[in-house]
């Protein structure tokens, strides 16, 4: 990335002769363009982020180091917190010390000041464009991770004796179900446990509870790598569909109108940990159980535009940069195409390996985001992970509960990263097969 020429800025320094009257001196301060190029590691044409809410040209005080380049970075296959788009990181780096001429970092701003309000409002409106979210829905930026939503959902959407339905397709939906048991009467209407969570049920076979307040699914099981390709429809028109989209949020277009509530922790596809996004149909808000803590009450957060208390400001800012980037890529239709291409070369490599590599997940529901695989010779797995790390491909170890390997290839994983992994897998097989 080219940095623009340094420009002169005046700095006020303490005058030793008269401490009350500062002297003026001139120093060289590097300025960054407001538009940053997207590094070309994935061989796509450069795209740029422009920030329409910028009140002034971005000017930064001296940076001791130049922004790092892609050659310094590893390919990070972690399941979350996960890799972020390089151009977003560079943009944040360039604005870290002095956000767009405000004289402050986003980390230092009042959450009620006009600067931060412009950041959170733009983040929300860009997300609404990305997912085509209608005004019937509230968008909330919350804290506590998706895990907190496991409790907030039953607390807000049903009373203690109400029945709610859960489809359990992996560890995360299982955790959500167990938490719901503290605040409602959940029914597991299907579980993939006996098949080691490698499947999604056929929707016709589901025995839904006739009066369930909601039907909960985990749209993408991060640990097991199973992803809903379509969504079940509640039989009862009063039952709403709820999805934990933590690990495939904004990875593809979603018809939000099919859902009463969608929630997602940001730290996989759209930002750093610390931000949880809830998209909820407005008419469902306002019926929380009396024991609901104020911080879990959607009504409080909706009425206060996610500013009831101090929100995770910097995390929300980062999410906003990611949303801009996704829009600049052409929106979620284009994003999904890239994700399909990346997942295809990886699953193909597994499938043509004559069993050297295996992915246990039913082919029709394989996740585009999290690809679990094992080695036929399981004694080689540690060596695989070690050698991959030497090649700057990190975090490929599978979750401790399932073992093997897992490559998380979220939106921000460049095509080149998956290509490199596939080439490494072929080479590893040639040497150890
Ligand atoms: C699908 C899914 N749901 C929920 C969670 C829990 O999220 P958090 O750690 O933000 O509470 C995770 C975390 O990895 C996840 O992958």
Automatic annotation (TrEMBL):
EC identifiers of the protein: 2.6.1.52
SUPFAM superfamilies reported for this sequence: PLP-dependent transferases (SSF53383)
Protein name: Phosphoserine aminotransferase
CDD domains: PSAT_like
Domain Aminotransferase class V: 74-421
UniProt entry keywords in alphabetical sequence: Amino-acid biosynthesis, Aminotransferase, Pyridoxal phosphate, Serine biosynthesis, Transferase
Top-level taxon: Eukaryota
Cofactor(s) for this UniProt protein: pyridoxal 5'-phosphate
GO biological process: one example: L-serine biosynthetic process
Segments of this protein annotated with the region Disordered: 1-25
GO function terms (MF aspect): O-phospho-L-serine:2-oxoglutarate aminotransferase activity
Family to which this protein belongs: Belongs to the class-V pyridoxal-phosphate-dependent aminotransferase family. SerC subfamily.
Species for this entry: Cinchona calisaya
Reaction catalyzed: O-phospho-L-serine + 2-oxoglutarate = 3-phosphooxypyruvate + L-glutamate; 4-(phosphooxy)-L-threonine + 2-oxoglutarate = (R)-3-hydroxy-2-oxo-4-phosphooxybutanoate + L-glutamate
Bias-annotated ranges (Polar residues): 1-10
């Amino acid at each position: 990335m080219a940095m623009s020429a340094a420009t002169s800025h005046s700095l006020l320094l303490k005058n030793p002769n008269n401490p009350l009257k500062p002297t003026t001196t001139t120093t060289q301060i590097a300025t960054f363009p407001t538009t940053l190029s997207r590094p070309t590691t994935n061989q796509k044409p450069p795209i740029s982020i422009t920030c329409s809410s910028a009140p002034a040209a971005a000017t930064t005080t001296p940076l001791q180091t130049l922004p790092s380049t892609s050659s310094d970075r590893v390919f990070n296959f972690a399941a979350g917190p996960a890799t972020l788009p390089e151009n977003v990181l560079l943009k944040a780096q360039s604005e870290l010390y002095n956000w767009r001429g405000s004289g402050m970092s986003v980390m230092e701003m009042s959450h009620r000041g006009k600067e931060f309000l412009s950041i959170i409002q733009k983040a929300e409106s860009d997300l609404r464009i990305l997912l085509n979210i209608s005004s019937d829905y509230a968008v909330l930026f919350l804290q506590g991770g998706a895990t907190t939503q496991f409790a907030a959902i039953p607390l807000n959407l049903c009373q203690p004796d109400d029945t709610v339905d859960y489809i359990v397709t992996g560890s995360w939906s299982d955790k959500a179900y167990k938490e719901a048991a503290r605040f409602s009467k959940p029914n597991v209407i299907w579980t993939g446990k006996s098949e080691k969570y490698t499947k999604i049920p056929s929707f016709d076979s589901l025995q839904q509870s006739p009066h369930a307040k909601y039907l909960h699914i985990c749209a993408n099981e991060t640990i097991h790598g199973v992803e809903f390709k379509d969504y079940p429809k509640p039989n009862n028109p009063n039952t709403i569909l709820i999805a934990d989209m933590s690990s495939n949020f904004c990875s593809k277009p979603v018809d939000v109108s099919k859902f009463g509530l969608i929630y997602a922790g940001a730290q996989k596809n759209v930002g750093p940990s610390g931000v949880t996004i809830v998209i909820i149909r407005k008419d469902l808000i306002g019926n929380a159980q009396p024991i609901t803590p104020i911080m879990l009450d959607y009504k409080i957060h909706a009425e206060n535009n996610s500013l009831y208390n101090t929100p995770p400001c910097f995390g929300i800012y980062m999410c906003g940069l990611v949303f801009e980037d996704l829009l600049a890529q052409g929106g979620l239709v284009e994003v999904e195409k890239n994700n399909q291409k990346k997942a295809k070369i990886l699953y193909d490599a597994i499938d043509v390996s004559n069993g050297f590599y295996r992915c246990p997940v039913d082919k029709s529901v394989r996740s585009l985001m999290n690809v679990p695989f094992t080695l036929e010779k399981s004694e080689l797995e540690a060596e695989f992970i070690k050698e991959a790390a030497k090649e700057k491909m990190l975090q490929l170890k599978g979750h401790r509960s399932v073992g093997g390997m897992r490559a998380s290839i979220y939106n921000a994983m460049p095509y080149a990263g998956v290509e490199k992994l596939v080439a490494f897998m072929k080479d590893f097989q040639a040497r150890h097969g």
